[in-house]
Design brief:
9-stranded mixed beta sheet, 175 residues, 9 strands, 14% helix, mainly beta, 1 helix, elongated, single chain
Length: 175
């Protein structure tokens, strides 16, 4: 009787131990295993996106604003500006505020020939993603970046009024 008890519980213990070992070594509980996602603003779609270990981000962005847009600046940052959630705090590449004055948002000026994106079309945009300390957010392979992508654009047929928009919030894995 006691031998039956020991064998049946021993076999159950071995099976449970093997199952726990398989689960733990498969990486299911790895904190770097998080889903990648991109939540775009209305009239925009994230077709594909990614970030490499040097902090360089690329996004294939579609738009359906009803007209052709000329993207004149792009930014990628961990945080929005604390005073205006529509402005990136760091990492601005040709991104200006609504007034057109770059103020404390470095570096540079508008590009002379931006990326033209037709309505129901797409453009491929590149930028470095910046951390809260103002440095490029380069991380090891497999880590994740969570932040925002901003663009400056003008609309064809209208006066050269620049529109600044937080176009997407993203979570990407460094590849």
């Amino acid at each position: 009787m006691s031998l039956d008890f020991i064998i049946s519980y021993g076999v159950a213990f071995i099976i449970i131990s093997a199952a726990i070992y398989i689960i733990m070594t498969s990486g299911i509980f790895n904190p770097t295993v998080i889903p990648e996602n991109c939540v775009p603003s209305p009239s925009f779609v994230c077709d594909s996106y990614g970030i490499n270990t040097t902090g360089a981000m690329v996004i294939k962005l579609s738009q359906a604003t009803g007209g052709t847009i000329n993207v004149t600046g792009v930014a990628c940052a961990v945080n929005s500006n604390s005073t205006d959630e529509n402005l990136p705090e760091t990492g601005n590449i040709n991104i200006l505020g609504y007034s057109g004055d770059s103020g404390s948002y470095p570096p540079g000026t508008f590009t002379s020939n931006g990326v033209i994106v037709y309505s129901d079309g797409y453009g491929i945009l590149n930028a470095y993603c910046y951390a809260t300390n103002g440095a490029i957010d380069s991380q090891p392979l497999g880590n994740s970046f969570t932040g925002y992508i901003f663009i400056n654009y003008t609309t064809s047929g209208l006066p050269s009024q620049h529109t600044l928009i937080k176009v997407a919030s993203v979570t990407m894995k460094y590849t």
